[in-house]
Specification:
alpha/beta, Ubiquitin-like (UB roll), 20% strand, globular, Rossmann fold, 4-stranded antiparallel β-sheet
Amino acid sequence: MGLLTFKIGGIHPLENKMSAQAAIEEFPLPTKAVFPLSQHLGVPAKALVKRGDTVKVGQIIAKGEAFISADIHSSVSGKVAKVEPVLDSSGFRRESVIIDVEGDEWDESIDRSPEIIKECKLESSEIVKRIHACGIVGMGGATFPTQVKYMVPQGKTVEYLIINGVECEPYLTSDHRLMLEKGEELIIGITIMMKSLKVDKAIIGIENNKPDAIAHLSKIAANYKGISVVSLKVQYPQGGEKQLIDAVLKRQIPSGKLPIEVGCVVNNVGTAFAIYEAVQKNKPLIERIVTVTGKTVSKPSNYKVRIGTPIISLIEKAGGNMESTGKVINGGPMMGKSLITVDAAVTKGTSGILLIENEKSKRIPILNCIRCGKCTSVCPMGLEPHLLSIISVNGMNERTEKERVMDCIECGSCVYTCPSGRPLLDNIRLGKRNVGIMIRNRSKK
């Protein structure tokens, strides 16, 4: 019997896990921290502080008032310098809280002891409230407010909690190191999530290029009822939630639907650890593990970084050579996006910083489509990227919607395989944007 994997499509890019053996290092405090009020999926949070206010580590500084939003907490102590728009990693000015760091004074309610606490004393509804109050979001990159996933709609039933330890993006190793170094806390976090969802089965999926993590978590999970670890084939994008559910349960999510439709909730291993810290230590999401890597980095590393730290400081500490770097990616090479400025801050969704060398950072010349069909054969969603690209560019929004453009998970497999260098994903993202607007306008009528 072969290793578990998803049903259709997928590619095998070079892994380049250069930082896999680099233990997590505590990153120094910044002198100034910047907190964009929009660092999660959904409505931006609303600032609760103003210039001149003093804050402690863990203190709430912005409130997510909408249903899909998340609270933001200060990761530093000091004085609020400004609340104003600041250029973010995408090149947009986002309302942000800027804090001048003065020492490292923590909120007294946070348990900073190294003791591992196994027993969760909160009830299901109380766990959801704590997750919400601590500003937990999906740590795999999507940054979806986690409390929403745990508010199971009436009439829906959760059978399985699926934990994503795949980390299929080339170069990135932050999840790998977290599984190795914080395995017990991570597993306890999973038991808390199971209690909240009232399920008795959890499955941790890990690609088999991480045998040490598989062995380590399997040993720990053996002491906890209902948690199993499965080894998955190395195949991108194995970490997509639809692909992961297909791989471990052989259940396919219908077009336009969510994992709850097939009885599942999916979370990243980083989210499980963040939930452990929130519920057992009352610690908000104020820091995360970030991989800093690339061929122009002298010391590929995994850092535990306070949210709000300038990205350039991580690059400098890891020995990044900016002169020979043509592009800096926020995330991995497949789904990450180019940074407009390295002065932008680390946010809740910053899993990695990747430096691409000059000669590799330029796109190949765009040629005519040769109708080879490679993009269709590798699409894990069973779409036709070449067709979606053409109709998206030509503004054929109704046709684009009919061809299921909204099912695209933006994995980039189509671009990776295209011999003609076609900007397939760029065009498809344009189509998704236009169709999204069309759908929203239609719902208002």
